[in-house]
Write a structure and sequence with these properties.
heterodimer; A: mainly alpha; MetI-like fold; 11 helices; 84% helix; flat; B: mainly alpha; 2 domains; 12 helices; 79% helix; globular; MetI-like (chain A); transmembrane helix (chain A); ABC transporter permease subunit (chain A)
Amino acid sequence: MTAIAWGRKLAIAAGLPAVLVGIWWLATAGSTSVYWPPLSTVLETFAPTWLEGRLTSDVLPSLLRLAAGYALALALGTALGTVIGSWPTVRALTEPALEFFRAIPPPVLVPIFILFAGIGDGMKILVIMVGSVWPILLNTVEGVRSIDEVLRDTARCYRFRRRTRLVQLVLRGASPRIVTGARQALSIAIILMVISEMFAATNGLGFSIVQFQRSFAIPQMWSGIILLGLIGVALSLIFRACEARVLAWYQGQRAAQR
Amino acid sequence: MSVATATRTPQAGARRRVPDSVLGLAGLAGVAVLFELVPRVGLVDERYLPPASVTATALAELVSDAAFWQALTSTLLGWALGLAIATVAGVVLGIVIGSVPALRAATNSTIEFLRPIPSVALIPLAVLLFGADLRSTLILVVYASFWQVLVQVLYGVADVDPVARDTARSYRFSALSQVRTVIWPTALPYVMTGFRLAAAVALILEITGELIIGSPGLGNAIATAQSSGAVATMYALVVVTGLLGVGVNVLVRRTERRVLRWHPSVRREVAA
């Protein structure tokens, strides 16, 4: 019985993707068009293109830069957000300025940071950090600000130590909003990882894909697009797993309230 | 509230008397002063970060330049067109998929898979197909903002009160009037949330496309300014994109409030 239920679930989940990939496969099967190579060719080029050499020379550097920039953005955004959110005066003072900086489309940071930091790893990490810090920062501010007054007063009455109050009350209370910000920041960070490499770089995923496109290595380019898509999907799955862990208490609470 | 204020210490009371808007303006002025002083003092090379006054002069020159207005118009046009296509497609598909349970179940995994694919991955393909054309950027904008709308609409349709839906069905409302009278009013707040998210994403992708692909617009102007060493002009253009972003946010928020003014509750925003 359960096996049948599982089978049905799998069929529902995998049905449409299988059909779509099948259509792609059939539609391009005999394709002689330069731009739409047969899917079989694309898949054949996938392994030799990415797994032999480029994995360590292009894919890994890209992902490391992404991780470094994103981690810095998380740390900086949460820290600054907590400070700004805790003092109404600081918040009023900085809010319009922050709204302005947040509204600048992050990709325009690339040409700016090239001036300061050249086209090396530093520039890219900086771009990813500065570009993705805003959603985290502003959501942390909101989260810290909207912590329940009663909880706040309770923590004060019980004379929680500063550290305890920060970790148990402020950061934990703000964590649903921080996670929301972090999710938006992740997709911006991925965009910036690719963009900074497409604009100017000597290695990386974005760089390789653009090289393939410019040298008309079309199946390789397609395999790069597929790889980028897979990375995007994988990162969002990892994010969801982390979210479920960090916010387990919150989701439990919400389910109980219903 | 007034009691609490009255019992506060005099300093605290005095501090609160400064209105937030004044503090905000002071903050903005502080940022401007900071950007003036940091290069002037020599903390950062003036060639990399011109003082705020120099950037302001460059901005004034831009405003009297016809090419700048042309770039701004192309950016706005591309943004609006992409956003409009994405919104219409997202709403229509969202309502169709959302109101048929079988369709919703069958498409769920596909949507979850396609959504996180970064739209910038499509850049090389778009360049091959259309070159440095408006259409290349349009693809990016539509792809990125479509998912924002679609997912929100799906949430909205799922939120429809089952009793209202069954009632409409019992009275044999036609499919169209079910959509109009039952689904649409429930989904509208979600549609607006999706629209707001999509508007911001669309602007980011519009500028990105111009910057990387080279289709006409502010992003392209920034790339040109950077490669020709017109640093102050580049910063002025970046400021313009920031102002544009603020303008888009304000406009969308106002539209949202206007469209939803009949809505009984101030709905807590669905985090997406």
